[in-house]
């Protein structure tokens, strides 16, 4: 199944190099053809089928459409070969479902380079049917009349020879047509010399048909023959002659029956969406030959089922072409053969090659000594860059040979390359406005019609609406912006050396980027319900544009503040830098800042602190965003146990009076609590209000005192306040803390609270809060089985990987609670030892005191925690030990 690749063969002097036009897979498309053709054959074999019926819906067409270079022409050729001879069917293609049926494939190249016209299309179909070995008199007489009228003095034999049809299909057609003319003349009892005078024969034949003479009863069954012979023999009349072919094929005896399969390739070259003259003629051929099966390949899907084309085409609407309607278009992932067989889906988007198919294509394309010439490492790079587009693979093969001719062994780095030829192929059949929109949307990951129109700077949406119908524009109907360009087309349009006449200058790209950024901001700020999805989408695309083209941040500043305000932390990092090669900008810094904040849920806090330190020290951000970087650096330092560094950062932000000043005040309150200065922490909480999360800080103060009910009430108030303000992250954090404190007092109630916390965490990326819920689950199960310790060991490992020192200390405290309930003296001693090690900096040192309180032990005099208990150490000790005795009683009462 591999032909000779002459371009590659003539690109090298190496006679040992073998080349092949590799054809890879496409078995899914073959299955679609086989099932659709089998269904068509069953339909035409039905006794009720009438080849002359001009009103029945048509399902005799199958369309494969796709981006230029996807392999449509190769597929068309292979389909022709497979239908003509089973021996030419690729090994991976299964046997067709029909048997005993005679199939006659006829492939017609409609490309401009082929130089064909409508006359040649009709003659090609008739020349292929010459294989039947008999005249088709109704059609042949009409065609002969047309030819004599339109080409006086030009022998048909010479035209067929010059057009290559004689060598392709043999020289039988002129003889069959002459035989048909002579037979009709004889039936009309005309003199033999008149047999070659087409005008006299057709005139006499029309009269005989009108008079219903017995001598022409063989042709009298063709009801519309007389009308066609009387019509002016022009191109319009010729387009109706296929009806005569359909009638003739229906008259063949059963043992001579044949089903033509006409493959029309490069259908996009028959015209455009404005001038449909050629398309109208071809559509007539398809409609008037219902027994024939047509396989059309082109860049765009057929619009014949669109009723709006009434008047431009003869047969339109979903009732006429049920398989071509928009609802019946088959995307690559759902191109099932059974759907096509049912006649419900006849437009199929040809998908990209899989990575495995790309590698197979490249391995077989060039060989030396029976081995693949292109090495595996180079093939891998080419396949990754191609995004599955066969044209890119083909161009890369030629580049491989070009580099090889220089004496340099091609290396993987040589194929980090864009091909301008891809742009030429993509732009070739687009209008100027469509090309302008295409370049504009190449700046965007995804777009909708308004975004594409505004980015292009146009006042009307029509070009964008036409562009989205092209196969290189992919659609996700439920996406925020439903359309995106094929990845390779987008990359090439943006990065290749575009030599088109209307290519863009750097200033053109800059202005389009400015328009795109402005429109994204307008969509975010004017949406009635922006939500997180729109916010994150606008940020991702807007940050990439601002970074790549050195644009001012503008609305991105407010969007960044909105992003951090909910503490949800969706991934925000846009793709790698594309075009702007200047110095780093505020947009670069903001990209790094926001991506670091999102990534901190998945990285060690040390890594987070390092990245934020670099952002702060670079000084690229405007003052209000610099405050954001300093604040979150201070938070990371606090998580790492670097309280002094954290305190300096929090004081700097709090003193600045900016948006994060209340949060920084909260951070200082936390630091006071870490040090055991509970009076200061509680006093601060009572001044912070909602912005400082005052209720949550109160809960954080009460639970170390063992006052779990009071802490739970504070956390509930914090959750309610977060719900009122619509801050999902704070709501989930407050609920997780509520579940944690109730886990010490009421395991059954804690179950419900943990379920709610997990629901509120769904869709959020809050690592520390998630760990809190798992520690709460351990506290809920404290005193039950040794499995608690195994779970704690796994959890300890995860916390260490995250670099959350404070969370690890909380885990050890919960484990001490478990040991105390079980009266495990060794366990509680080991837990106290780990707590001393974790809190030797002074932060959370009172956790060691609490562990002693649980076990009703006295803390050693040194080192002490210096905790300033709100109502004294004795009251706090009593509450914690009461929790232990209550849990023991609960476990004794539990069956």
Describe the protein in words.
The chain contains 42 helices and eleven strands. Helix 15 links the parallel strand 6 and strand 7. The chain is elongated.
Please state the oligomeric state of the protein chains shown: single chain
Proportion in helices? 55-70%
**Mean pLDDT, as a whole number?**
85
**For the record, what CATH class of the domain at 26-111 and 259-352 applies?**
Alpha Beta
Detail the poorly predicted runs. Answer: none
The total of beta strands comes to 11
Radius of gyration: 39 Å
Tally of helical segments: 42
Notable traits:
895 residues, Rossmann fold, single chain, elongated, 42 helices, 6-stranded parallel β-sheet
Write the layout of secondary structure elements.
Elements: H1 6-9, E1 17-19, H2 27-45, E2 61-65, H3 72-84, E3 103-109, H4 118-129, H5 137-150, H6 156-162, H7 165-169, H8 172-187, H9 198-211, H10 217-220, H11 225-230, H12 235-238, H13 242-251, E4 259-265, H14 277-288, E5 293-298, E6 329-330, H15 337-341, E7 347-349, H16 355-365, E8 366-368, E9 371-372, H17 376-386, H18 390-405, H19 420-427, H20 432-441, H21 449-456, H22 462-467, E10 473-475, E11 483-485, H23 487-495, H24 506-526, H25 531-549, H26 556-565, H27 586-599, H28 605-618, H29 623-639, H30 643-656, H31 661-674, H32 678-688, H33 694-702, H34 708-725, H35 728-742, H36 747-761, H37 767-780, H38 787-802, H39 805-821, H40 825-838, H41 846-854, H42 873-893
Parallel strand pairs: 2-5, 2-7, 3-4, 4-5, 6-7
Antiparallel strand pairs: 1-8, 8-9, 10-11
Helix pairs in contact: 5-8, 5-9, 16-17, 17-18, 20-21, 21-24, 24-25, 25-26, 25-27, 27-28, 28-29, 29-30, 30-31, 31-32, 31-33, 32-33, 33-34, 34-35, 35-36, 35-37, 36-37, 37-38, 37-39, 38-39, 39-40, 39-41, 40-41, 41-42
């Amino acid at each position: 199944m591999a032909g000779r690749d002459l371009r590659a063969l003539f690109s090298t002097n190496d006679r040992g190099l073998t080349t092949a036009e590799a054809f890879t897979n496409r078995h899914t498309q073959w299955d679609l053809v086989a099932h659709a053709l089998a269904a068509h054959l069953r339909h035409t074999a039905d006794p009720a089928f009438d080849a002359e019926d001009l009103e029945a819906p048509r399902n005799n067409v199958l369309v494969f459409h796709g981006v230029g270079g996807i392999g449509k022409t190769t597929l068309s050729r292979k389909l022709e070969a497979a239908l003509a001879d089973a021996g030419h069917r690729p090994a991976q293609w299964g046997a067709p479902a029909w048997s005993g049926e005679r199939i006659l494939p006829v492939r017609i190249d409609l490309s401009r380079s082929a130089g064909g016209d409508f006359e040649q299309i009709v003659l090609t179909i008739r020349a292929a049917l010459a294989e039947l070995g008999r005249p088709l008199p109704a059609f042949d007489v009409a065609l002969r009349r047309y030819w004599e009228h339109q080409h006086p003095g030009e022998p048909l034999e010479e035209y067929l020879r010059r057009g290559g049809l004689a060598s392709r299909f043999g020289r039988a057609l002129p003889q069959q047509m002459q035989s048909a003319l002579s037979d009709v003349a004889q039936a009309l009892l005309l003199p033999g010399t008149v047999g070659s005078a087409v005008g006299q024969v057709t005139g006499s034949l029309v009269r005989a048909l009108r008079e219903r003479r017995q001598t022409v009863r063989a042709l009298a069954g063709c009801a519309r023959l007389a009308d066609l012979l009387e019509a002016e023999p022009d191109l319009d009349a010729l387009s109706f002659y296929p009806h005569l072919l359909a009638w003739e094929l229906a008259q063949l005896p059963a043992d001579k029956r044949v089903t033509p399969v006409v493959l029309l390739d490069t259908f996009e070259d028959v015209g455009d969406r404005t001038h449909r003259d050629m398309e109208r003629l071809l559509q007539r051929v398809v409609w008037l030959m219902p027994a024939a099966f047509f396989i059309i390949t082109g860049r765009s899907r057929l619009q014949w089922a669109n009723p709006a084309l009434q008047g431009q085409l003869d047969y339109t609407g979903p009732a006429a072409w049920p398989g071509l309607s928009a609802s019946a278009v088959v995307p690559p992932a759902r191109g099932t053969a059974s759907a096509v067989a049912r006649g419900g889906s006849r437009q199929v988007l040809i998908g990209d090659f899989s990575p495995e198919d790309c590698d197979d294509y490249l391995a077989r394309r060039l060989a030396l000594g029976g081995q693949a010439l292109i090495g595996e490492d180079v093939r891998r790079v080419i396949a990754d860059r191609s995004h599955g587009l066969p044209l890119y693979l083909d161009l890369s093969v030629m580049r491989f040979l070009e580099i090889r001719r220089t004496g340099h062994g091609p290396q993987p780095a040589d194929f980090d390359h864009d091909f301008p030829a891809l742009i030429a192929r993509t732009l070739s059949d687009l209008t100027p406005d469509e090309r302008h929109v295409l370049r504009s949307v190449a700046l965007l990951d995804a777009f909708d019609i308004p975004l594409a129109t505004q980015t292009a700077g146009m006042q009307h949406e029509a070009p964008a609406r036409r562009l989205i119908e092209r196969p290189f524009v992919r659609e996700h109907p439920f996406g925020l912006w439903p359309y995106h360009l094929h990845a390779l087309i987008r990359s090439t349009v943006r990065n290749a050396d575009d030599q088109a006449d209307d290519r863009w200058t750097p200033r053109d790209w800059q202005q389009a980027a400015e328009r795109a950024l402005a429109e994204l901001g307008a969509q975010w700020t004017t949406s009635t319900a922006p939500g997180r999805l729109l916010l994150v989408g606008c940020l991702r695309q807007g940050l990439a544009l601002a970074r790549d083209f050195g644009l001012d941040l503008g609305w991105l500043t407010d969007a960044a503040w909105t992003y951090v305000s909910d503490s949800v932390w969706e991934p925000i990092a846009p793709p790698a830098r594309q075009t702007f090669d200047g110095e780093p900008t505020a947009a670069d810094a903001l990209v790094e800042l926001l991506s670091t904040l999102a990534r901190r849920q998945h990285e060690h806090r040390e890594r987070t602190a390092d990245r934020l330190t670099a952002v702060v020290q670079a000084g690229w951000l405007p003052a209000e965003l610099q405050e954001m970087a300093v604040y979150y650096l201070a938070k990371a330092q606090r998580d790492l146990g670097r309280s002094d560094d954290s305190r300096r950062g929090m004081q700097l932000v709090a003193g600045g009076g900016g948006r994060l000043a209340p949060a920084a005040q909260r951070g200082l309150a936390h630091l006071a609590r870490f040090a055991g200065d509970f009076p200061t922490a509680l006093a601060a909480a009572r001044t912070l209000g909602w912005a400082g999360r005052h209720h949550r800080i109160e809960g954080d103060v009460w639970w170390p005192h063992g006052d779990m009910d009071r802490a739970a009430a504070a956390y509930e108030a914090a959750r309610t306040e977060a719900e009122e303000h619509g801050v999902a992250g704070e709501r989930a954090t407050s609920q997780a803390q509520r579940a944690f404190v109730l886990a010490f007092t009421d395991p059954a109630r804690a179950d419900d609270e943990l379920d709610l916390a997990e629901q509120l965490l769904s869709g959020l990326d809050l690592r520390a809060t998630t760990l809190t819920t798992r520690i709460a689950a351990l506290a809920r199960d404290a005193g039950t089985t040794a499995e608690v310790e195994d779970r704690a060991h796994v959890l300890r490992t995860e916390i260490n990987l995250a670099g959350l020192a404070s969370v690890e200390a909380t885990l050890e405290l919960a484990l001490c609670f478990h040991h105390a309930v079980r009266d495990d003296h060794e366990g509680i001693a080991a837990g106290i030892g780990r707590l001393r090690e974790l809190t030797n900096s002074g932060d959370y040192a009172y956790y060691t005191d609490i562990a002693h309180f649980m076990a009703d032990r006295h803390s050693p005099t040194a080192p002490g925690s210096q905790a300033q208990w709100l109502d004294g150490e004795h009251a706090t000790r009593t509450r914690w030990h009461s929790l232990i005795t209550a849990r023991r009683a609960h476990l004794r009462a539990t069956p």
